[in-house]
Structure formats: structure tokens, C-alpha cells
Amino acid sequence: MAATCLARLARCSGSHVCRSGPVQMTSVPLSFQQDNHLQFTTFRRRLYTPSGQRQSNTRFDTDSSGRPTTWDSFGIWDNRIDEPILLPPSIRYGKPIPKVSLSKAGCASLIGQRKDNEDRFQVSQITDNILYFAVFDGHGGPEAADFCEKYMEKFIKDILAEESNLELVLTKAFLEVDQAFARHLRCSPNDAGMNAGTTATVALLRDSIELVVGSVGDSCAMLCRKGKALKLTVNHTPERKDEKDRIKRSGGFITWNSLGQPNVNGRLAMTRSIGDFDLKKTGVIAEPETKRVLLHHVHDSFLTLTTDGINFSMNSQEICNVINQCHDPKEAAQRISDQALHYGSEDNSTIIVVPFGAWGKHKSSDTSFSFSRSFVSSGRWA
């Protein structure tokens, strides 16, 4: 059915739509307006009813009935996020693709029990068809997270001018930001930031369908598909055999603190980061692991990016369940960050929630929380 609808969309400019039935309907021209900058198409149709003429803002009215149309009419569920269909990508991929809007994303960042909030986050549109979402969780001072917040987007933009593969774009951007931060510290008049580092989890969304995530450290990206949590990142910790082996090959060592947390050289609880230059020779690297997925808006409800202040107190499915009960992403972001504090998180708690086509489809009154959660602080320093 989606292919039929798309074919109709492609030829609807300047056409006339008629419907025969018990009540005589007047033929009405269907016009469309296209915004070349945002590359999406919206439709407005005049509807005639027995009570008189009224203006409809619905994107499609396939049967001229005047009833609002939801994404479910095209095999995609959406009765709350009212966004236009992106016509060129929909034709290219052969299915309706709703425009993912920055204005609908929800963000929250709480300081928790820490003296300072060293988390940073950012959402922006970096090209006409690419959206950028990022969280950075600093440690040893805010300098590395501040630097990434300020410059990561710029490096990605510059690399996009020469490279279309988004996984390569993110890999190059992470490495170049790390090198630029090192140069920045060498030019600093004092030693501030020499031991600073940060996690980095960045998501690029092209044409509202191609999602690519890159990460170093233990900030997470998760996709809610069919109501289930699908993790898009794997934490870089010494508990991973491949990460531990690299540290040991590079001359580093692993120790465990009093809470049973493994640390690189007795200092850092992650094996990849931006910054932490005193540990670079012992195998701590800034090269991200990347993952690419094509969204299925009929099944995919939202994307979350979270720092470990949330991840250490709530698992991915718990986060998914709580968000699925929320009315909108802004409410969801605030509720998750608050929930992490209520569950005993002492760390900064930051989350970004990006809604997709199936937002609201898997809403459930069920919540299954773990009563065996850990209340241990998620500090990175031994």
C-alpha cells in the first residue's frame, strides 16, 4: 500500500481529486508547496462539508472525507507527532518517511550529587538533510567535554564536504577532535585540563532514515524498536576482553577499586575516550566504534543518547518502558533524568530523546523495574 501512496504523491501536483457518493462533492485542486531548504513537501486541501467550507492542515486526505490521516494509513503509526512526509527520500526508499524534527526532541541534564555538571549535549541540523545529536560525559574536569561540544560539529561538517560515508565521517571526526584537543592543551598557559577526558556518543541522521552512531567510553545510544530496547553502542571498559587485551599489549595494566570496578592503570574506568593523554601510550584510544541502521518508522519509536549517570541506575529496557508511557519526548527526557536520581544515581544525568514514526504506538501501562539495581556511584576515578 505504501508504494501505491508514494506513486500518488509523485503525480499529485496540479491534479484534481473527485469522489462520487450519496453526497455530491465538488472537485478541488490539490496544491503542494515545497521548501527547497528543508527538502520536504506539505499538502493543503480545501474540504467541503455539509456544514460549510473549512481548511484542512492534514498532509493527506486519501478519500476526501475530511477525516485527519495518521501515519498508520500508510503502514506507519503516528497520531501525536504531526510532521510532513519527506517526499524525495520516500520515493528513493519506496516507503513513506516522516520528517524527524529537532523541535520535537527532548533533552535534560541534571547535576545530581556532584559539585559540577561535566556532562554536555548538543542537537543541531548540520546540513539540509543531516541531523546531529551528541552527549559528552567529562571526567577530570570539564575541558575535554567543553572542547567536544564546541568543535565536534565543525569537524563533522568539514569532513562531510569530502566524505559521504557517515561511519567514516564519525571515525575521522573523533580522531581529529582528539588531536585538536591535544594541540589546544599544549598551547594552554597552565596545566588545566591535562588529565581531562570525556566520553563521546554522536548520532547522525540522514534523510530521517539512515542512522549512524559512533561512540567512545560508556555513554550509550539505544533505539526503541517494537517496544524493545535495541542497544546501538557497547561500553568500552576493561571488562571487555578485546579492550583489556589492547591495554595489556600497549603496556598498561588493569586494577580493581574497592567497589569492584576495573580501571586502566588504576585511574580510568574506560578504555576509549577523547583526551586522557597520559594514558594514550597504554592503549586508551579515541577511535570510535560505529554502527549504521536504517530506521523502520512503522516499528521504531525513538532514539536515546544517555550518559552513565542514567545507565548505571536504569537498564535499557527500563528506560524504554518509562519513555513509552510519556506524552512527548520533552516530558520523557525530564522523567528519565529524575528517575535516575530517585534510584540513587549520584552522577550527572543527561539524556536526549528523538521521536520517530512509531512514537506512541507501544505505549503501555506496564512497568517492570529491577529491584536489584545498584546504588553504587558511577565514578570514573579509583
Keywords:
seven-stranded antiparallel beta sheet, globular, five-stranded antiparallel beta sheet, disordered C terminus, 382 residues, Phosphatase 2c, domain 1, alpha+beta, 27% strand
Structure description:
Belongs to the PP2C family. Residues 104-356 form the PPM-type phosphatase domain. The protein is α+β, with helices and mostly antiparallel strands and 382 residues long. The protein folds into two domains: 2-93, no CATH class; 103-355, 4-Layer Sandwich (Phosphatase 2c, domain 1), CATH 3.60.40. Helix content is 24%, strand content 27%. Strands 7, 8, 9, 10, 11, 16 and 17 form a seven-stranded antiparallel sheet that branches. A five-stranded antiparallel sheet has the order 6-19-18-12-13. Strands 3-4-5 form a three-stranded antiparallel sheet, with no helix packed on it. A hairpin with a 4-residue loop joins strand 3 and strand 4. Helix 3 crosses helix 4. It is globular.
The percent range for helix content is 10-25%
Q: Span from first to last CA?
A: 58 Å
Q: How many E-type strands?
A: 19
User: What is the residue-averaged pLDDT?
Assistant: 81
Number of domains: 2
Query: With helices defined by DSSP (H or I, 4 residues minimum), what is the helix count?
Result: 8
Low-confidence runs: 13-63, 67-80, 367-382
Please name the fourth-level CATH homologous superfamily of the largest domain: PPM-type phosphatase domain
Helix/strand order:
HEEEEEHEEEHHEEEEEHEEEEEHHHE
Q: So, CATH architecture of the largest domain?
A: 4-Layer Sandwich
What is the 3D shape? globular
Proportion in β-strands: 25-35%
User: Which CATH C-level class of the largest domain is it?
Assistant: Alpha Beta
| CATH fold field value of the largest domain | Phosphatase 2c, domain 1
Q: Structural class of the helices, strands and pairings? A: alpha+beta
Instruction: Report Rg.
Output: 24 Å
Instruction: Give the biggest beta sheet.
Output: 7 strands, antiparallel
Keywords: Hydrolase, Manganese, Metal-binding, Mitochondrion, Protein phosphatase, Transit peptide
Subcellular location: Mitochondrion matrix
InterPro entries: PP2C, PP2C_BS, PPM-type-like_dom_sf, PPM-type_phosphatase-like_dom
EC number: 3.1.3.16
